[in-house]
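Q: Given only this backbone (185 positions), what sequence would you predict?
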């Protein structure tokens, strides 16, 4: 797992300790991009991806959904990766095993927080798509990846169509589909 850096959690306040642990996402490269030869000086981190997803949540949340909840989900949807790293299909770990590892990591991360049960429930809602908000953030997660691929195509003058195609398989919301397809017109 390639990282820019990793910091240690040392604060006695569990909220700040969780914050410090989550900040490791800033130093964790998105491994799929590195595996596709994105230079480290250009490669986004997991925190970059989460920030992008949260921005999309803020900007695109439909009025019938709970926007606050959608943004919160977008911010924490990769929280488990600060413990287990950014697992990709090339790691040959089953989806079920990855989900188990991620859930255990999120449970560990949120266990000592005053509202840890609420954060865990919110993460599960995203992970399992048990609400409209969770399913919407799942689509935003893939939309962000597709838009990032398009940005890399422009920056690096290379074809990342496979990432966009992968995103298109998950993105079902017509507004989000149109955004993803707009660049390709």
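A: Predicted residues:
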């Amino acid at each position: 797992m390639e990282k820019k850096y990793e910091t240690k959690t040392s604060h006695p306040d569990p909220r700040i300790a969780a914050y410090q642990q989550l900040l490791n996402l800033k130093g964790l490269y998105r491994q799929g991009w590195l595996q596709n030869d994105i230079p480290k000086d250009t490669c986004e981190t997991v925190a970059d991806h989460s920030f992008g997803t949260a921005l999309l949540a803020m900007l695109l949340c439909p009025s019938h959904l709970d926007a606050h909840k959608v943004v919160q989900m977008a911010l924490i949807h990769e929280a488990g990766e600060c413990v287990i790293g950014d697992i990709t299909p090339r790691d040959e770990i089953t989806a079920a095993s990855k989900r188990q590892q991620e859930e255990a990591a999120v449970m560990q991360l949120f266990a000592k927080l005053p509202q840890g049960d609420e954060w865990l429930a919110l993460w599960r809602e995203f992970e399992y798509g048990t609400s409209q908000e969770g399913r919407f953030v799942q689509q935003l997660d893939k939309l962000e990846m597709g838009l990032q691929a398009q940005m890399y195509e422009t920056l690096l003058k290379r074809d990342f169509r496979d990432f966009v195609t992968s995103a298109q398989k998950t993105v079902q919301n017509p507004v989000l589909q149109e955004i993803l397809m707009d660049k390709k017109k």
